């Protein structure tokens, strides 16, 4: 198993992007349960749908 040195930076970047979206779009909400990737190597969400209404 290896450790990706860029992973913490990627997490910081996505957190900053989501915070900026929430600031600009205060009604931002999940449009449903986000599906996860089934892979062991590439974990995380497959997609993330949101709504602003």
Distance between the termini: 43 Å
Low-pLDDT ranges: none
- Supply the helix-strand structural class: mainly alpha
Rg is: 14 Å
Q: Order of strands side by side in the largest beta sheet?
A: 1-2
Query: How are helices and strands ordered from N to C?
Result: HEE
Principal-axis shape equals flat
Report on this model:
The structure is a single chain. By secondary structure, the protein is mainly α. It has one domain. Helices cover 34% and strands 8% of the residues. It has one helix spanning 7-24; strands at 29-30, 50-51. The mean pLDDT is 89.
Q: Topology of this structure?
A:
Elements (H helix, E strand, L loop, with lengths): L6 H18 L4 E2 L19 E2 L2
Antiparallel strand pairs: 1-2
Write a brief structural summary:
This protein has one helix at 7-24; strands at 29-30, 50-51. By secondary structure, the chain is mainly alpha-helical.
